[in-house]
Amino acid sequence: MTDLGSRPVDDEVSARRGVAAAMADAARAWLDGLDEAQRRKAQGAAPADDATDDERRRWFYTPTDHGGLTLHEQRPRQQRGAMRLVASGLSTAGYVTVATTMGLENVLDAHEGFVTIFDRERGRDPGMYYLSVFGTPGDTGAWAWRFGGHHVSLNNLVVDGVLVSTTPCFMGADPASSPLLGGAVNRPLGRVEDLGRELMRSLDPDTAARALLRATAPSDFVTANRTRINHGDRVIPLAGIWRDARFPDDVEQGKLQALSDAIDAAAAYEEADHEAVQYTLDPRGVAGGDLHAGQRETLCLLLSTYFDRVPAGVSPMARVDDAALDGIHFAWAGPTEPGAPHYYRLQGPGLLIEWDNTQRGANHAHSVWRDPSNDFGLDVLARHRARHH
Question: Do 112 and 192 sit in the same domain of this protein?
Answer without folding.
Answer: no
